């Protein structure tokens, strides 16, 4: 196990530290939920997002409710499947077959982990307000929040790794984080999740995304998974530099 971590740069060690902290936070929150310590806060916040005189009406103008449904779809199985299929198709066309398999396995694995966690905790859905979205599974952790974190954070981190400009990398990661946050907030707004369900989903998704990113980096270094070419002006100069390096090596012989 120690040999596996040998040679990792500091950023990977920080990622592993963050992943460890997220695991601790998830199980700490799960313990509080199981003991019922968060229920009062959960119910208060869900009810606060509805009209005081009508729990069936969410706060805000009618178009906000429609935007909430649109936002929650970003973490649904349909959109997640389309996004994953689109990226997998690109990797297939680009000749990154093993990376494509790794990506699909990461998403499917995240969905299975979400289903297992839901079955293990079996927390009932909120019943204090009418649901504004159709639901079939248990509540903890939020599957939409977890899957959006798994897909968007994983794709964002893999894309940021091949972008040379720091500002562009920050932008890509910020968009991925915002999409994940919007999905989670929409689940509480629609009354189908407690806020602690969503927080747990974010934590679990972050853990899974960081684990997948770390494994992908390690496999790329060992050449078990293809590396993606860098995107940007500096990318065009890389092939020329490799050719020049090979010519210099050949001239020595």
Keywords:
about 5% strand; mainly alpha; globular; about 70% helix; about 250 residues
Structure, described:
70% of the residues lie in helices and 3% in strands. The two termini are 41 Å apart. A two-stranded antiparallel ribbon has the order 1-2. β1 and β2 form a beta hairpin. It has one domain.
H/E element string? HHHEEHHHHHHH
Tell the overall outline: globular
Radius of gyration: 21 Å
Largest sheet: 2 strands, antiparallel
Strand order of the largest sheet: 1-2
Number of strands: 2
Global mean pLDDT? 83
Quick summary:
With about 250 residues, this protein is an all-alpha fold. It has helices at about 1-5, 10-35, 40-50, 60-75, 75-95, 95-120, 145-160, 165-190, 195-220, 235-250; strands at about 50, 55-60. It starts with a helix and ends with a helix.
Task: Spell out the blueprint of helices and strands.
Elements: H1 2-5, H2 10-34, H3 39-48, E1 50-51, E2 54-58, H4 62-73, H5 77-93, H6 97-121, H7 143-160, H8 166-189, H9 195-221, H10 237-251
Antiparallel strand pairs: 1-2
């Amino acid at each position: 196990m120690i040999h596996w971590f040998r040679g990792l740069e500091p950023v990977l060690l920080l990622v592993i530290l963050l992943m460890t902290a997220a695991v601790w936070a998830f199980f700490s929150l799960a313990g509080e939920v199981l003991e019922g310590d968060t229920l009062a806060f959960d119910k208060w916040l869900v009810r606060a997002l509805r009209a005081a005189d009508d729990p069936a009406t969410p706060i805000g103008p009618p178009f906000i409710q429609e935007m909430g449904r649109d936002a929650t779809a970003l973490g649904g199985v349909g959109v997640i499947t389309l996004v994953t299929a689109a990226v997998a198709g690109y990797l297939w066309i680009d000749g990154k077959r093993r990376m494509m398999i790794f990506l699909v396995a990461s998403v499917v694995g995240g969905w299975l982990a979400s289903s297992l966690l839901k079955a293990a905790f079996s927390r009932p859905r909120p019943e204090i307000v009418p649901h504004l979205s159709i639901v079939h599974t248990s509540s903890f952790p939020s599957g939409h929040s977890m899957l959006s974190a798994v897909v968007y954070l994983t794709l964002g981190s893999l894309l940021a790794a091949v972008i040379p400009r720091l500002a562009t990398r920050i932008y890509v990661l910020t968009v991925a984080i915002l999409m994940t946050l919007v999905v989670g907030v929409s689940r509480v707004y629609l009354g189908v999740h407690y806020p602690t369900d969503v927080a747990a989903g974010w934590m679990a998704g972050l853990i899974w995304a960081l684990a997948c990113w770390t494994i992908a980096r390690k496999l790329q270094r060992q050449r078990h998974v293809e590396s993606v070419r860098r995107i940007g002006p500096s990318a065009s100069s890389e092939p020329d530099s490799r050719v020049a390096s090979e010519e210099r090596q050949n001239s020595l012989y």
